[in-house]
Design goal:
Elements lengths: L1 H14 L3 E5 L12 H20 L6 E5 L3 E2 L2 H7 L10 H6 L1 E2 L1 H13 L4 E2 L4 H7 L4
Parallel strand pairs: 1-2, 2-5, 3-4
């Protein structure tokens, strides 16, 4: 992700036009047992993107950090079939703290259109709020 940004962002800045959408995650904000490596990589994505946004805030290049919650995809189902974090076995988690891929895409499109810098699709807003108390 860093290499791609270092390759394409300078050209976008020169044109003063373009969109950069980087996927971080709420997993990079909230400590979750058994998700150390994954959470660390997402934390790095979140931080790098926020720095990129700050460094280029005077440009017309739109940079968006997307921090979805757990997304209902095959990877989540695979995690559920293994020694996953206990939170995955929680009905509250499954009902309120997951999102569909379609919900994430809609939130990204809306965020880019509205000029937002960070997109917290659906239940990620809850996770983003809760991290303040953890």
């Amino acid at each position: 992700m860093v290499n791609v940004c270092q390759t394409v962002v300078p050209d976008m800045l020169q044109r003063n036009y373009g969109d950069v959408i980087i996927y971080g995650s709420t997993a990079g904000m909230i400590v979750t047992a058994k998700f150390g490596a994954y959470g660390a990589t997402k934390c790095a994505n979140n931080f790098y993107t926020k720095v990129l946004i700050e460094e280029n805030k005077k440009s017309k290049v739109r940079i968006l950090l997307v921090c979805p919650p757990a997304v209902d995809m095959p990877l989540l189902k695979q995690a559920e079939a293994t020694d996953q974090p206990d939170i995955f076995n929680n009905s509250f988690f499954n009902r309120y703290l997951t999102s569909s891929p379609e919900d994430v895409v809609k939130a990204v499109e809306k965020s880019i259109k509205n000029g937002k810098k960070v997109c917290n699709p659906r239940s990620a807003k809850i996770s983003s709020f809760l991290k303040r108390f953890m």
